[in-house]
Amino acid sequence: MTTRAPSRPLFSLALLATLAVGSTSVPAAGDVRAAAPVDGASGIGDPYWPLDGNGGIDVSSYEVSNRYALATKRLSGRTRVELTATQDLASFSLDFLLKVSAVTVDGERADFAKTDGGHELRITPDEPLAAGSEHTVVVSYADRPSRRSYAGERNWLASRREVITMNEPHMAPWWFPANDHPLDKAVVDVKVRVPNGREVISNGKLRGRDVGRRWTRWHWRADEPMVPYLAFFAAGDFTIEKGRHRGLPWLVAVSESLSARDQAASMRLMRKTPAVVAGLEKDLGPYPFSVVGGITTGLNPGFALENQTRPTYPAVGAGYTSLVVHELAHQWFGDDIAVQHWADIWLNEGFATFMEWRWTETHGGRSGAAILRSYYDGVGPSADFWKVLIGDPGAERIFDGAVYSRGAMTLQALRNRVGDDVFWRILRTWIREQKGGNGSSTEFEELAARVSGQDLRSFFTAWLRTPARPAPTADNGLG
Fold first, then answer.
1. Does 404 reside within a domain?
2. DSSP designation for 416
3. What is the pLDDT, as a whole number, of residue 21?
4. Rounded to 5 degrees, what are φ and ψ at 226?
5. How many Cβ atoms sit within 10 Å of the Cβ of residue 373?
């Protein structure tokens, strides 16, 4: 995520929060009993947002089929969720804010209730779910998402002409039921009906468009699993362009609700997308997905977001190439490799900001080392900038400017410390080993030490876990 200002100063699957059940005593011989099914936890185990995600389930796919009325801002539909129980479950939850009319599990009606302030959809099937068993859950709903909030957020961005579902760390529960945490990636298939004459843009590839008497259904599907908040759709009036660049399909869109001047400038910026991907590949290796693109909304989100395969942008003009670099760098750092917990956010934002610096130095601007020194010398040692713990900033500060800039500084300082060749070997090894999964700061630190052959504990302590400006030493990459 980035704000509208340039350079904002913006695993393998392992489900957590398994509930302990049963007695700790040892049963007598011949008295071995299976533990009773439990209610799956209401959270996946992330301390920043304890209700994010859910225990006891692993989602493999979402098939979202919605209808959206732009004039009334009413959304209705149903979502089919394919999941595996990871423990014996009497009930389980999905994260969802809208009013629900029915739930089925494997075609049978299931009891359901809203809990925890309306964020949790607790589902109780007729029969318990056995650990390791696969199930199909269908949730039907209708509501006005703009009326719903969670964790102090009201994330529905819409006018009577346009809607776009973009936000972080939460967005999915406003338009489809989800296991809403980066630890559970799934394939997302999106079908949205809108009044005839309107367009719908989403992740991945356009699979079909069916025009009826009054409504048109647009069908989009991404090939690769994604984190729920990275799924999106936009509906309204859009100009769409597409093509191929070095074999990679691209599709971009610009809202026609913008002025003619802003539309032209935004399209010029969006057209840079395939060339920026090609430039990033020189350092990071192959782009991780099967399609790329971007969309400029006519609404005013105040930030850009790295929606998987198709980042979303406000209208900022044609000159903000750095913004496109940032969001496309996230396709590697944040999308393909998602955070393990939200405390690891610097692995997303610091890495994407560093790639902005890298783009600058390879396109006639200052070197990364010069940018690092400028930040270091330009911010006094008592400034709040140095007080944020980048390795664990807290829920209220995960998008603090320091996470972005000091995250990038950490990487450039590491580059100074270990040398250019070793540094890029570290990044490429990280991308290769974590591909398609999740990563933590601890894992990155261990990998950097392994690849470099250096003891980097004091280095990362100084940059990530000390609320003070690192000492200007060679060990800290500042000598």
1. yes
2. H
3. 31
4. -145, 160
5. 17
How many CA atoms within 13 Å lie on the side-chain side of 54? 32
CATH number of the domain enclosing 373? 1.10.390.10
Q: Comparing C-alpha atoms, which of 358, 296, 362 is closest to residue 329?
A: 358
Does residue 371 fall inside a structural domain?
Answer: yes
Examine the pLDDT at 96 and tell me if it is beyond 80. Answer: yes
CA distance 108 to 52: 27
* Host domain of residue 361: 342-464
Q: Is residue 350 part of a domain?
A: yes
CA distance 447 to 449: 5
Q: What is the mean pLDDT of the chain?
A: 93
Q: What's the CA gap between 475 and 479, in Å, rounded?
A: 7
Overall size of the chain counted in residues? 479
User: Which residues pair with residue 140 across a beta bridge?
Assistant: 78, 102
Beta-carbon contacts of 155 under 8 Å, excluding residues fewer than 6 positions away, are: 165, 167, 170, 171, 174
Following DSSP, what letter does each residue of 67-135 receive, concatenated?
EEETTTTEEEEEEEEEEEESS-EEEEEEE--S-EEEEEETTEE-EEEEEGGGTEEEEE-SSPBPTT-EE
Nearest to 388 by CA among 449, 438, 346: 346
Domain total in the chain: 1
Other C-beta atoms closer than 10 Å to the C-beta of 243 total 11
pLDDT digits (tens, 9 = 90+) for 229-268: 999 999 999 999 999 999 999 999 999 999 999 999 999 9
Q: How far apart are CA 409 and CA 413, in angstroms?
A: 6
Q: Does residue 308 contact residue 289 with C-beta atoms inside 8 Å?
A: yes
DSSP string across 334-401: TTTBEESSGGGTHHHHHHHHHHHHHHHHHTTS--HHHHHHHHHHHS-TTSGGGTS-TTS--GGGTT-H
Taking alpha carbons only, the member of 335, 239, 240, 319 closest to residue 287 is 335
In this structure, what are the phi and psi dihedrals at residue 355, rounded to the nearest 5 degrees? -70, -25
C-beta of residue 301 within 8 angstroms of C-beta of residue 318: no
Q: How many CB atoms lie within 10 A of CB 264?
A: 13
Q: What H or E segment, with its residue span, contains residue 142? A: strand 134-143
Question: Residue 210 pLDDT > 60, yes or no?
Answer: yes
| pLDDT tens digits, 152-186 | 999 999 999 999 999 999 999 999 999 999 999 99
Give the single-character DSSP code of 18.
P
- Residue 442: inside a domain, yes or no? yes
- Contact by Cβ (8 Å): 186, 62: yes
**C-beta neighbour count of 258 within 10 angstroms:** 20
Core vs surface per residue 443-453: b (16+ CB within 10 A) or e: bbbebbbebbe
Burial of 177-188, coded b for 16+ CB within 10 Å and e otherwise, reads bbbbbbbbbbbb
